[in-house]
Amino acid sequence: MKKNGLIFSIVLVATIALAFVLRFAVSTPEEDFIISVDNYSGRESSEITVSNDGKVIATIPALKNETTKEVQIPPFDLKSPEFIISYIDKNGKKHDDNRFEVTSTKSTMNNSLYMSVTKVKDDGTMNIDYSYSSTNGEEISSQTN
User: What pTM does this model have?
Assistant: First the structure.
């Protein structure tokens, strides 16, 4: 009987020690911030940049017609609630008028931004629709006409 109690105690202590070690060795799972872009405009798009608080968080390369690109970014805390979607047209002019504010959350964990290039004009200007979804249920979207 003493032997069984000793074995049980050793196994219990070993299990607790292993759990303690693995707690620090294995990182907790994090859900990435996902940015997904598609282009079904009929023409190649320009490179698209997404920024927050003056810092570029993602650069989407120029997309050929009928292509999609997804970027996964480790979650980060928002320093500013404003996101800016920008690009440069064929004349070298920067377009950064696609702006929106996220007010319901302070982090991008489990959030997603979906963008769709709906039209690319001859001069390289683009119509970009976007939809931002957060875990708090907030959804912000914009559609061009």
Answer: 0.75
3-state secondary structure of 4: helix
pLDDT value for 1: 61
Q: How far is CA 49 from the centre of its chain?
A: 13
Neighbours of 22 (CB within 10 A): 9
- 120 close to 43: Cβ distance less than 8 angstroms: yes
Angstrom distances, CA of residue 112 to CA of 35, 41, 75, 107, 108? 6, 22, 10, 11, 8
Of 129, 69, 136, whose CA–CA distance to 102 is shortest? Answer: 136
Cβ atoms of 104 and 138 within 8 Å: the answer is yes
Contacts of 143 (CB under 8 A, 6+ apart): 129
pLDDT in tens, 87-141: 999 999 999 999 998 887 888 988 999 999 999 999 999 999 999 998 877 788 8
